[in-house]
Every structure is written in C-alpha cells, then in structure tokens.
Amino acid sequence: MTDQDMIQGTTPRRLRTWLWIAGIVSIVMGGAAVLFPFAATLAAELVFGAILVVSGIVELVRAFAMRQNGSLIWNALFGLAALVAGGILLAWPFQGMVTLTIVLGVFFLLGGTFKLIASFGLRPFAGWGWIGFSGALSMLLGVLVLFGLPGTALWVIGLLVGIDLIFLGIAEIAMASAIARD
User: Fold this and answer.
1) Is residue 9 very low, low, confident or very high in pLDDT (cuts 50, 70, 90)?
2) Do the beta carbons of residue 19 and residue 179 sit within 8 Å?
3) How many domains does the chain divide into?
4) How far apart, in whole angstroms, are the C-alpha atoms of residue 149 and residue 165?
5) What DSSP assignment string belongs to 81-126?
6) pTM above 0.90, yes or no
7) CA distances from 57 to 62, 74, 75, 80, 110 (A)
8) Is 170 exposed, middle or buried (0-12, 13-18, 19+ CB in 10 A)?
9) What is the Rg, in whole angstroms, of the alpha carbon atoms belonging to the chain?
10) Does residue 92 lie in a domain region?
11) How confident is the model at residue 122 (pLDDT cuts 50, 70, 90)?
12) Which of 16, 30, 56, 109 could form an S-S bond across to 142 if both were Cys, CB 3.0 to 4.6 Å?
C-alpha cells in the first residue's frame, strides 16, 4: 500500500472493486438509455427541472434569511428565475425537451466552430487535424440535431447520455484492470 493509498484511506483492491461496480452499473444504465432514448430524455428533462425548482427554493430561503447583506432583491430574483424555469420544465416536459435539445444543438454547433477555428491556430503542432476533425464532427452533430427538430428532441439527449455512460463505464473498468496489473 502506498502513502497516497493510506492518505486516501482506500486500498487498491477496494478501489478496483468499486471501479468495476461503477463501470458495470454505468454500462447497464447507459445501455438502457440507448435502448430507450425517449424515456432517458424525458427523465433527464424532469430531473433538470426538479433540480432548478429545489435550487430556486433554496436560493429564495437564503435570500430572505440573509436579507441584511443588501443583496435580497438580486438573490431573490435569481431564486425566482430558477424556480420558474424549473416549474416550466416540469409543467411542460415535451416543450422542455425541445428547448434543451435546441440548447444542446447550438452548443455542438458553436463549440464545433470554435474547435475548428482553434485547430488552425495549432497547425504547426503534430495532430492539429484531430482537433479540426473533432470540431467538424461537433458542427455536423449540431446541424443534425437542430435540423431534425422537433423529432430529435424525443431521443437525442437520452441517446447521448447513454453513450456517455457507456464510455464512462468502459473507462472505469479499464482503470480497474490497470490497477489490477500494478
């Protein structure tokens, strides 16, 4: 056992076990999201709405509890905005799915554009084309998501969350296997 392991209070065997468990759970949940992307998209939208509602309530309580510091109005407005946004997502989940999908599509489009532009600045370095390729793929994904609306809103978030969970699970299992080899 290394000093770092003792400091963190865990053994390599225990870490490896938990990585395997987390990896398997991530892969299973990701697979379910890929198989049932509508349900995963709806669940993600509802969870996001609930988080905003709870956060808005907490911010409102905090704003009034700490009103003497002079920022009551701004803190209360922020809490109210979060509460209203979350309430709207919960009250109209299908419209919320469309809205979140638009935000995601714009993110891919803009992020891809920025990566593509940045890749040309990296051109003297080996592998700069991979950044450009990643940017072009992100832009293409953004265009596909946005031009596929409203249909893509029913499945794209769930599918992408599922794919992300599968890759996370694979990474966790790979790390557990690497620890086992050490």
Assistant:
1) low
2) yes
3) 1
4) 24
5) HHHHHHHHHHHSHHHHHHHHHHHHHHHHHHHHHHHHHHHHHTTTST
6) no
7) 9, 14, 11, 8, 32
8) middle
9) 22
10) yes
11) confident
12) 109
DSSP state of 69: G
The sign of the torsion formed by the CA atoms of 176, 177, 180, 182 equals negative
- pLDDT the model gives residue 6: 46
> If you search the block for the tokens 């009034």, which residue do you land on?
64
- Domain-located, residue 114: yes
Q: Could you list the residue range(s) of the whole structural domain that residue 63 is in?
A: 12-181
DSSP 70: S
Identity at 59, one-letter amino acid code: E
Does the residue 139 lie in any domain?
A: yes
pLDDT band at 2 (very low <50, low <70, confident <90, very high): low
pLDDT in tens, 15-71: 899 999 999 999 999 999 999 999 999 999 999 999 999 999 999 999 988 888 777
Does residue 6 sit within a domain?
no
**Three-class SS state of 147:** helix
**Which residues make Cβ contacts (< 8 Å) with residue 105, sequence separation at least 6?**
142, 143, 145, 146, 149, 152
Inter-CA distances, 148 with 76, 105, 108, 138, Å:
38, 10, 14, 15
Check: CB of residue 157 under 8 Å from CB of residue 48. Answer: no
* Count of Cβ atoms closer than 10 Å to residue 100 Cβ: 19
